Amino acid sequence: MEESKEETVLATMNLEDDEFDTKESVLQKYFLQEWNLVKSFLDDTVSNSRVSDPSSAHKIRSIMDKYQEQGQLLEPYLESIIPPMMNIIRSRTIELGVISDEILEIINPICIIVYSVVTVCGYKSVIRFFPHQVSDLELAVSLLEKCHHTNSVSSLREESTGEMETKCVILLWLYILVLVPFDISSVDTSIASSDNLTEFELVPLVLKIIGFCKDYLSAAGPMRTMAGLVLSRLLTRPDMPKAFMSFVTWTHEVMSSATEDLLQHFQLLGVINALAAIFKVGSRNLLHDVIPVVWNDTSMLYKSSNAARSPLLRKYLMKFTQRIGLTSLPHRLPSWRYTGRTVKLNVSLNTSSKPNQSNLGVNDNYSNSIEITDDVEDEDMDVPENVEEIIETLLSGLRDMDTVVRWSAAKGIGRITSHLTSSLSEEVLSSVLELFSPGEGDGSWHGGCLALAELARRGLLLPASLPKVVPVVVKALHYDVRRGPHSVGSHVRDAAAYVCWAFGRAYYHTDMRNILEELAPHLLTVACYDREVNCRRAAAAAFQENVGRQGNYPHGIDIVNTADYFSLSSRANSYLHVADSIAQYEGYLIPFVSDLLDRKICHWDKSLRELAAEALSFLVKYDPQYFASAVMDKLIPCTLSSDLCMRHGSTLATGELVFALHQCNYVLPSDNQKTLASVVPAIEKARLYRGKGGEIMRASVSRFIECISIFKVALPEKIKKSLLDTLNENLRHPNSQIQNAAVKGLKHFFRAYLLDSDDKSTSDLTAKYLNMLTDPNVAVRRGSALAIGVFPYELLASQWRNVILKLCGCCKIEENPEERDAESRVNAVKGLVSVCETLVSGRENSATSFTEKDFSLFILIKNEVMSSLFKALDDYSVDKRGDVGSWVREAALDGLEKCTYMLCKIDNSGCLSGKSDGNEIEPIVQPLTDNMLTSNAELLLFDENLATNLIGGICKQAVEKMDKLREAAANVLYRILYNQIIYISYIPFREKLEEIIPKEADAKWAVPSYTYQRFVQLLQFGCYSRYVLSGLVISIGGLQDSLKRVSLLALLEYLEGVESKVPNTRTSREYMLSVDIMWVLQQYRKCDRVIVPTLKTIESLLSKKIFLTMEAHSPTFCAAVLDSLAIELKASTDFSKLYAGIAILGYIASVPEPINMRAFSQLLTFLGHRYPKIRKASAEHVYLVLLQNGNLVAEDKIEKALEIISETCWDGDMYLSKHQRLELFELVGLKVKILGKYSDGTSRKTSSKKPTDLDENASYSSLVESSGF
To answer: In the predicted model, is pLDDT for residue 1214 greater than 60?
Structure first.
């Protein structure tokens, strides 16, 4: 509380400081955060009258780009940014002259900055700060002429040197300058020296500007828009009628001769955009005479193929069409329009003391004012003939396939309608409502919604018309049309929510009260149950707008707080929690249920149907009777629908309803239970499992059976057998989702309907599933293992030993390679652990005393189950999917943890010894009798040996290469060490483990740099070191460079022993590590999965001079490594293995020890290897060895040996390589008989038996891939 008070006080003090602070400091604090950097750049630029470093201009532009979506934050700084920059452009141009080549180098970087501000804030905000002296007009035209013919050196924005930006800035400057309040002929200095200018000729300066702008109208960049703006201001001047008529004639030629040429297409876009800008600012007297010509060209162009291919051209044509229509109609504000919420701010403030009376007054006199004024308008107003065609064009634009065109057409409809009479506006509204007919496409519905929103915003949609508009909007809120495997309509629903939002802003509460009551349930339905997040948020925003502006709406604030922007971001949260919270309020439950039943249960998206069924069950608690009768009666017939989506959703929803009714303790009548019991047989009778939707229906039927089993619906024996057969059939399906659904169904079906069966039936059922464990079909084996795992205690009690032993056998890797299946082993491990948990918990719940049979169960768990799980922890099977054995290892980790708790719980309870230390859990069974046990050694189920194997196996997985497994193993170890319920005893070096695994909630075990530096410390303990090292070498010698780097660094830091204060730490740790490496080489002999990374690890350590300075032990270690290499490299075809072995031989041959000659002789042997790349790699290492250790060859022969190695093409002819190798043997002094002893298998076949290890993966294909061919 004190901290929150301090924060409040500080915030208040900051606000008070802001009130008395300078404007610049406040702006810097809350607006442009990089103002100091921008200010220093501006000061430097002004002081030097140029940008000193061109790269700084791009840096400032990157700062401005960050405010692209919030340009208003930059507007307070425009006065400090724009005038200094433009003054430099103006002054340096005057100073250096336009002819100077240096001028563009100066102004280009400045224009980059100015244009970046224009793109963020908009040109209208920026041009207010441009200089606008009369003399600047000629200067700007000359500058534009200078840069007119320059081209950008790069099309990339990041590499721009400012040519394009300069043209845009100068055109914007001209946009202001052409508004000089003088005749331009008096400004043009070239006229004074010209005697040939007649009254019918244009001023040269004007001709230049028009010429440049015509050229830019054909450009593809932003200059096209800028040129149109300049022409709109220039040609609408009072002294430019000749120029205007000339330009219209030119545009007529362009529009009437349009072709498919790309360059002319850009010119066409520029011309239409320029005309639209001219018609926006031009006077009606100037434009009225040219309307027939331009409208004829526009209508013809809209029907052409050019417009059909170009959405942008159609958008510009829509924009121009509405401008023509506005110019054709008289400019008057209709008195008939609704003025409820469009009054000005000062009027609202003046009348705020009596808001209700003023609002009512406006609306009371509303109808009378319409009647009085409309007659006058109908008599006086003369509607031009082309307006009807223009409105028809805009209405057709509302049907366009592109959103930008529809949006422009909708705005045009709103603007033109505001100039029509009330009767004509009603005709326009009727035409818009025709867009919502069933035969229209989604584009028409979207365009119609946009048009309705525009009419409402402008007060052109009268309250009297709302009754016929609202039903259409409601339909649009739920618009969703199936198109093949998906549906369209999200943009329509979004636009419909926009219409509702516009209603809330446009009308008074008195006019909207009934409308809001009709719209609110539909808006909240969309906000909670729409598939798209933008539609959910749009509907919630519309509801919030109406609640905020329409007054006291029941529970409005509570609903707005529940359905906010962030809570609706998650579809699941919207369906299950937000909707559940809103449904408690009156008036929303039935609409929510109706929407789920009518639209979401039968939705094309499978995940949405599943979510809708679950959401429906969440609403049951508010009215169980309604759901049990009306809703269920509607759903059950739909389970046999011919539409797959409908029957799948209905089956799921029915099951979820039954489950929810069970949670509400609602008792279904017997008739309803009979109906439910007949659902699955009816589905099977109709053969609805066949075809494309069979798999989907199987999963939903399994869930349905699960739900009715939980409810314990009364079933006849025949239907029980039928449902069990259905679940067994689904259990055999290869789809894992169907199998999992069937297993969940069996779990509850067994407990609900089979526990009352006789012993023979249950025994036969158990035997049936045990036989399925050895079925040739892998899908059957997978499903049966999971099914046995959910057996209740009563089914396991009689055959528990057979079940456990059979599952233990299924956890092993199959002997026949064709029958191996990782998923079967994963499910067997999970099923085995579940069976053990069921048996142990069943004994705990039993009222009988502890028996010898129970003790046998725990002994079996200790000896057989734990042993099987330890073997599963060494499952490194690989197939085309990768390391599929990791799935088994992950399941084994979880199983070992659970079995450990079972054994330790019995040990701690004292039921085996009859002793208690006062700290353990209360005994769950009676002490054993004396004749059950023979010695105290047998009393412990979880002993030190088991603890060592457990922790060692977990730590091995915690240092291997897979992030997911490392994290899982570390979390298991954490839970074992810090379990608050069951204390795990006999863990060696527990204190050190607790230091390595700290009691932190946010440990990042998946991050290698966090994990390896901790677990590598276990190498100093003999009971764990071999486990850790056998996993660590996989990471150090693996293919992942980042993992190799982190793990090797952790090992090297450990060997340095910086954290240890014991002397000779490095030597002792090196010695222990060397012993463990020799054990790994021996233990995993001919197992390339471990041997290859181990050899790479040895290579990396030898390169760091590790193992070479251990005095007496170094020769022993090197000899052991050489013995292992002689076995591993013999007849090997694994290139990575051969490369690593050759490198190790090179390192050992380089040491000044007697063992070096043996290594050198083995290295020379590889010079005659059958693979050229191996011969070449061996030659390189031999050359390095001779350079580093000259004692291997006599001094008078070393030059000759080096010459042979360097000049021989070892990756060439094999016979030549063998001959050169014999020469080297003679030079070294080795006898030829040594060749036989260390042969690589090239001269004769080896008699060694082919290894049968499961992880052996050597093949010719892997050889070719690794060799780079």
So the answer is: yes
